[in-house]
Design a protein that fits this description.
By secondary structure, the protein is an all-alpha fold. It has a domain at 2-55. It has 3 helices and no strands. The protein starts with a helix and ends in a 32-residue tail after the last helix. 0% of the residues are buried. This is Histone H1. It holds the Pfam family Hc1. Residues 57-95 have a biased composition (Low complexity).
Length: 95
């Protein structure tokens, strides 16, 4: 939950700047809001990547067979069908 706390802290730190920008039309506060939103975007992407990696690591661990379990033989691929020879062209009739 540490990541959630960081996210919440960042959003809460932007509250005053949002108020100053939208209520008082303070342009400098707008710059701080944009900077904070960029940090939020970067943080969100890092959290998304972490969640995906954790999820994939858990799924990979669940997919492994139990110790001592017999492995199934891999399925063999069927041989490709033989291609038919192209039809011979008829000679052009002379007039």
């Amino acid at each position: 939950m540490n990541n959630f706390g960081k996210l919440k802290d960042l959003v809460m730190s932007l509250e005053d700047d949002f108020s100053k920008f939208y209520d008082k039309q303070n342009a400098a506060a707008g710059t701080r809001v944009r900077k904070g939103m960029q940090e939020l975007k970067t943080m969100a992407q890092a959290f998304r990547t972490e969640v995906q990696n954790t999820k994939n690591a858990g799924a990979a661990g669940a997919a492994k067979p139990a110790a001592g379990a017999a492995k199934a033989a891999p399925a063999k691929k069927a041989a490709p069908a033989a291609k038919a020879a192209p039809a011979a062209k008829k000679p052009a009739a002379k007039k």
